[in-house]
Amino acid sequence: MKKLISLLLCLTMLLTLSSMAMAEDTRVHITFSFWGDETEAQSVQANLDAFNASQDRIFVEPMQIPNEEYTSTLVSYAIADQLPDCGMVNENAVLYFARNGVMADVSTMYEGEALQPMDCITFKDAGVPVGYSSCNEILILYYNKDMFDAAGEPYPSADKPYTWDEFIAVSKRLTLDENGLHPDDEGFNPEKIVQYGCFVNNWTWQLEVWALSNGGAWFSEDGKECLINSPEAIESIQKVADLALVHHVAPLNVIPEDNGVGVGIGSGAVAMTTDGTWRLGTDFPTLGINYGIAPLPVMKQEVTSCTSGLTGVFAGKHQAEAYEFVKWYTREESSWDSLVLTGIWMPKSEYYYTEEGMKEWLGNDAYPFKDIETAKKVLVDYTMNYAKPACWYFTPNTQITTNEILFTALQPVWSGEKTAEEAINGIYEEMVEAISME
Amino acid sequence: MEKVIKRKSKYNKAESRAAYICMLPSVIGLVCITYLPMIASFALSLFSWNGLGNMKFIGFDNYVKLFTNDSKFYGSLLSTLKYAGLSVLGCMIFSLIVAMLLNRKIPARGFFRGVFYLPYVLPAMAVYLGWKWLFDYNYGFLNYVITMAGGNRIKFLDDSLMVTPSLALIAVWLSGNLIVIFLAGLQNVPRVYHEAAEVDGANGFHRLIHITIPCMTPIIFYNLLMSLVTNLQVITPALSLTKGGPGTGSYYMCYMLYNKAFNSHQYGYGSAIAVILFILIAIFTAILFSTSNGWIFYEGDDKE
After folding, report:
1. Longest dimension (CA), chain B
2. Which of A38, A70, A145, A347 could share a disulfide with A352, CB 3.0–4.6 Å?
3. Which of B153, B160, B266 sits opposite A412 (nearest CB)?
């Protein structure tokens, strides 16, 4: 009798298990790859849970890959034909993936939608849209209000940016050596500077904006020509290098870090720094400094760069399901609380840059930057009037040109061993060859 | 003689079978994860391939480009040789001296042996981050001390000529493993030679030159070879500290091949650099082996 009961129990268990398995099989399982730390992994998981609970046809599983080897890992999966169905993509890999057939066509994703992504954050290969950034980030100027107060210097204006010369002059008044002297004072000792006036982030992609500001460009708008050897582009690089080398108003930063805030204003030794708007959410809330924001200084014309990575659909057998998930995942609402209201992302749809739309995020109590008038001018108006896409939105092979060739070649310029002209002329041929590589 | 072998052959067969079976795992490992990838690397170096698109056979074009239209290749080659030269020389001299000091009967000898070995077991990233703070130009400790003493700041990592010596200094600081091997070698130098020399009136220096160093030559050779091969393949400091800069100052060949293959996705080009690095290491190893007969002293050797 006992045997019979246990046999029956076993049978029931097996049946339940198999029916559970069968029930799960009706959903299409897709994988979503992303980079980020544990906190980000938790917020991604929360989003996936919400999507998985919202319908019963698709089940999304996360795949976490370390940031440094993200793209190369995806490439190795692609070679092995094991790509995830969708995932985040670095800016410099979007065109590389799109041109090699890794990305599925998303050009109709927002057709007929009320919220349209802005044109300046649309990746285009020879003019055809191949992907939309997850958000919008622009470059702005951050400044430490306490340091300006101590120097008796008025704050940078939110709508009337410094000219480059004004920027240098203000930086000089904010730069101090150990005896309290400024760079133009007699007896100033550049070897013993205790406070720097400014720091212009020289991480390669953040430099392009200065070529545009100086009336030049790095690449032609169709992404086919390399213009970095134009006098305007070369002069803009030299001007940034001279802040440290000639004017002694900025710390030397020969081997750039992707964190101008960390080496600049965050260390408490620099009064103004340029960097991306995501720092409003990722760094400033924890830095504990009394800071303000302003548009970038202007060399010849007012301009800022915008950028952001994207979440893409990869070509594969579950393309339709991945497409549906990505469309859901990249709506502003899906990351509203975790990314937009924390200040890390600015919305990607034009609506949020209208009088009405901006109230929803800038006007929200949770938004970390409280001065809504300044935020309107520096984040919203600045984006709408002056933002231009960074070169990787329209230029192929930036993973070779800007990320590798230029990054290394410019270091002797930052250290003063070479002039910008020497450095650029030394690599121009290589850049031209790289840009046309398949 | 033939008979003896025949009689033993059954036993020999069984024994050699056992040997082959025992060797099998390591042979499979070597073939699959060393030799085959090496051959594949060479094959790949003849193609233009971005990882995702089609592979295009281009013969030796990658090599031609390396030597003709690459702004960084010669700089990279030079930096690699400079780094390997400086660190091998520095590590060998430093380790041998420290090992000889630690071999003397000094108080707290065990403690000091631990102290010099410690850097070697620390995690590399932590070591390089620590040194970064020492070397930093704007806020670093070393430059703080230098300016306090009235000197001008030194661009330890921010100057393309200074960066390799600075990184080689870290390599010397990290050479605890060489010290341990030297120490083991020193303890094997027969006491009788020293005693005999002392009786003959040789001082410490004479004994070093004529006894210690000759007896140590096999160990010196081993350490030299190992550290040369390791240092020619240097990549960690470039990855963690300098990103290959400034310019090609620390753009070592291993870093260059990593960068070309995995960051800019030029897999064929990266493989060509790997092949050249392999040939370079092979040449240096061959030179070292071909000269070794002339200067290595093996005990029990019948050579004069």
Report:
1. 86
2. A347
3. B160
| CB contact A241 to B (< 8 Å) | no
Nearest to B245 among A252, A403, A408 (CB): A408
Pick the CATH number of A26-136+308-369 from 3.90.249.10, 3.40.190.10, 3.90.1150.10, 3.30.70.240: 3.40.190.10
What single-letter DSSP state applies at residue A133? B
- Tell me how close the Cα of A171 comes to any Cα of chain B, in angstroms: 17
Are B251 and A408 an interchain contact pair (Cβ–Cβ within 8 Å)?
A: yes
Chain B contact present for A245, CB below 8 A: no
pLDDT at A6: 67
Domain at A138-307+400-435: CATH architecture: 3-Layer(aba) Sandwich (3.40)
Chain A CB within 8 Å of residue B71 CB: yes
CB count within 10 Å of CB B117 equals: 16
Q: In Å, what is the CA distance from A204 to each residue of A227, A392, A407, B275?
A: 15, 12, 6, 30
The domain segmentation of chain A, as residue ranges, is 26-136+308-369, 138-307+400-435
Question: Phi and psi of B159, rounded to 5°?
Answer: -135, 135
A397: left (phi over 0), alpha (psi -120 to 50) or beta: left
**pLDDT score recorded for residue B304:** 45
Residues B123-135 have pLDDT tens digits of 888 899 899 889 9
> Which residues of chain A have a CB within 8 Å of the CB of B264?
399-400, 403-404
Cα four-point dihedral sign A222, A227, A231, A236 = positive
If you search the block for the tokens 């293959």, which residue do you land on? B261
Is A138-307+400-435 the same fold as A26-136+308-369?
yes
The predicted-structure confidence for A64-95, as pLDDT tens digits, reads as follows: 998 888 999 999 998 888 999 999 999 889 99
- Taking only the tens place, the pLDDT of each residue in A302-333 is 999 999 988 889 988 888 899 889 888 888 88
A75: chain B residues, CB-CB within 8 Å: 51-52, 265
Of the candidates A313, A296, A306, the residue with the CA atom closest to the CA atom of residue A119: A306
- Please compute, for residue B38, the number of CA atoms within 13 A of its CA located in the half-sphere on the CB side: 10
Q: What is the pLDDT of residues A234-272, one digit of tens each?
A: 999 999 999 999 999 999 888 887 667 877 787 778 999
Shortest distance between the Cα of B56 and any Cα of chain A, in A, equals: 11
> Cβ A252–B251 below 8 Å, yes or no?
no
Mean pLDDT of A179-197: 91
Break chain B into its structural domains and give their ranges: 1-36, 72-259+270-295
The residue of B263, B266, B267, B273 whose CB has the most chain A CBs within 10 angstroms, and thus the best one to mutate to test that interface, is B263
What kind of fold does domain B72-259+270-295 have according to CATH? MetI-like fold (1.10.3720)
Kindly report whether the global pTM for this prediction surpasses the value 0.95. no
Cβ contacts (< 8 Å) between A415 and chain B: which residues? Answer: 155, 158-160, 246
